[in-house]
Amino acid sequence: MIRNERQYRIISSQRKHLADALDELVGSTLTTVEDGTDIDQAAWKSRIARDSLASEIASLDEELQEYELLQRGVMHSLTVSSVRDLPDALVRARIASGLTQRDLAERLGLKEQQIQKYEANNYATASLRRIQEVMDALDVRLAGGIDLPRTATPLSQLKTRLRQLGFDRQMIDRRLMRDSNGITGAAGVAQIIQRLSRLLDVPMAVLTSDSEPAPALATAGWFKTSRSAAQPALEAYSRYAEGLAKIVVRATEGLQILPRPGTAREIREGIETALDEFDVDDAEPAMSSALLLKATLRYVNGLGIPVIALRDPGAFHGACFFHDGRPVIVLKQTTDSPARWLADLLHELDHIRSETGSGLRTWIELGEISAWNEAPEEQHANDFAADILFSGRAEPVVNQCLRAANGSVQRLKSVVRDVAMQAEVPPDILANYLAYRLGEQRINWWGTASTFQESASSWRIVTDELIPLLDIGSLDAVDREILIDALAS
């Protein structure tokens, strides 16, 4: 959701870039695949790429059009069907009222940064009293009712069962049963159940039962979760991600698995080699984090480790799965910041690198991947990522920042870009690492770090690097459609 003019300009630029990429792709590909017979590998990959680009463009168009309509005052009412919809409705109401985040802050007697934090976190830290104060400041009223239960249908019963398994309504409607609208016949419902049974590795009898207790959807992976992740929802989404990982393993069976990397220095050297494949502007020594993300993905994929990108809210931010001895990394962020995606990727790579082959256990951890965590394994993974990102010079660069700021946290923001340029490190990566280090001292600097983030379609970058690795023709029709749906939306 677009919250201010700066985000509007960034999204507009992204939309143009994606549209140009889609035009180029369509112009270079004439082959289409109508069914699953005589599958043309290049055509399937082209379809995934086209559908993925078109889906992302459509999503950006919705955001841009909504922001424009709100600014013009065309929208006079907003639909709030549940409490979950209220935070976004408050942001929309502010925009429709012609107020900036600073304007709203002044009405409430707060700092602008506090409103930015509220909106960025969907008012998760705001009390009911504060939310009411925001509504009063915006002069909006909430009127509604509660829908009573309706007569159950096969589809509604299936949705109820999925909620019992831990999936929320948004995940069910947007991902698991997105194409279920209009399906009423038994055959159509059975097809959906078969697909979900395959994806979630749950017997069809369990999905259709209305009497048996819902089983726990435990998985065999290593996870890095959000602090607010609820256990049933985490386990359910993790099972979904693990199902995708298994499909990707089947689609990359021909991918050669190289020995796992050793030291951070060896990995950095491998990434530097991958960087040579890209055009780097010599006039900009501190390369962009987006370029560094591309090179790191190229290196990791070259090890025989595919990386899947998801962007659903909640649950975990990163996960490692092993299937038939083959590793898969799943990254999931709602942010576009390539620096955050890159840190998550290297964090998970350390878990894979450290795996001994003695068997995996489900690893549930609290906190953002890049946030301070006292668990030794997490400290090691974060330090490992920093060693790679700073070429082993993380501590000297931090000390350089502190000297330039005369030891003042308040002055750190003013020195980040200059120090980053001298250290040949992207500013957003340096800002995030400073926030991580300050977190050790219980100082929250993430709000300031967010102002340095480079905007790039990170989900698109990860997906574009995965597609060439896939042998779509090796999958059956069910797996093929599951994977295409996941990569295209």
Automatic annotation (TrEMBL):
Output the Gene Ontology terms for molecular function.
DNA binding
Recorded hits in SUPFAM superfamilies, A to Z, give: lambda repressor-like DNA-binding domains
SMART domains, from UniProt? HTH_XRE (SM00530)
Domain HTH cro/C1-type as annotated: residue spans: 90-146
Taken from the record, one Pfam family name reads: HTH_3
Can you say what this protein is called?
XRE family transcriptional regulator
Question: Highest lineage ranks of the organism?
Answer: Bacteria, Bacillati, Actinomycetota, Actinomycetes, Propionibacteriales
